[in-house]
Design brief:
The protein contains two helices and no strands. It has one domain. The protein is rod-shaped. The protein is mostly helical and about 90 residues long.
Length: about 90
């Protein structure tokens, strides 16, 4: 068995460690939360950018439909898709 001064020192170190963990816990939780929020924002921005690229490509396809030899059925499907996202041929000025 350890002598009393060593046991006291170990007990004080354990109490100090518990105090430090208690004080750092909210700070670490906040840091983790901030990191998650940042990742969510980055993912949202990437999603928005991908949607914008998709819309730009759909506009280009619709604008160039005549030169691309699309069948009338494909042109109609593309027009319907663009109509659903509120894009008409008059809005193809980028």
């Amino acid at each position: 068995m350890l002598p009393l001064p060593q046991l006291t020192l170990i007990a004080l170190l354990v109490l100090l460690l518990m105090f430090v963990v208690h004080k750092l816990s909210p700070i670490l939780q906040d840091l983790v939360h901030q990191r998650l929020v940042h990742k969510q924002m980055v993912l949202h921005m990437q999603t928005v950018e991908a949607k914008l690229r998709l819309v730009q490509e759909l506009r280009r396809l619709y604008r160039d439909a005549d030169q691309l030899d699309m069948t009338p059925q494909v042109q109609a499907s593309l027009a319907q898709l663009l109509k659903e996202i509120n894009i008409t041929r008059s809005q193809d000025h980028e």
